[in-house]
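On clarity, I found the account of how folds are encoded harder to follow than it need be. What matters is that the chain and its backbone geometry are given together, residue for residue. The format is easy to grasp once an entry is in front of the reader. For illustration, here is how one protein appears when written out as sequence plus structure tokens.
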Amino acid sequence: TVQACCERVSDALKAPVDEVAAALPAQDVVHMDETGWKVSGKRAWLWVFSSATIAYFAIDPRRGRGILERLFGDGHPGTTITDRWSAYSFFSPERRQLCWSHLLRDLEGIVDAMGLGSAPAKPMLEAALRMFSDWHVFRRGEITRAELVERIAPFRISLRVFAEAGVGQKKDSKWRGLSRDIIRYQPAVFRFVEVEGVEPTNDKGERDIRPAVLWRRSSQGTRSEAGSAFVSRMLTTAATCRSQGIRLLDFLERALTAHQLGQPPPSLLPTRD
């Protein structure tokens, strides 16, 4: 009985969730993250793609760029906010923002390791923390974007110098690895400073994926393609409703009613006034 109920809900949500997936490439900013999953005991990955108003979840057997190609085609016209996992190199650096939470942790790791890069990394870490203070001042409306750009400009220069020095040495692998990424993805390091709506961290994507992590802990994953579809559609619906302030049970009731009566399903996309 429970399984039959889940299948009915999944069927009712298919069209609204497919509509969310189709709308992803048109979003100005998309946060992306992934976490491990199990399907019939085999390794898989659960992905999330979140904008300000919609969120799409998908379970895929691989952690590669295949799912990005299927969802976004030739690329993404807006900005993607991600960590530095290699699959995200599908998007050009000019259309990405690297998560500064990860960059901060890497700088802290270099400082704490007490290697060759420890001394030069310490002022970079301090400058990065000041950058976040400036960002919060900007978010409160106390300074303009032009003032934010001006305040952070010296750090952008010093971080580039730090990265060039790190690439040029061979004794500290942590310093060299981070430096390579900073240079390789340079346009994606400070995109948030200049582009409206772009955040310096992937906090939204990580928040949206937490309920999925809790579901995984209690369920140990899924056992079939149908089960994975149900999980993906429910997570998509719940996160999207939460983003738009819609009561989840109300939407599920409307979707099930429409499905049973053969009527057009309700939409998860925000309405435009």
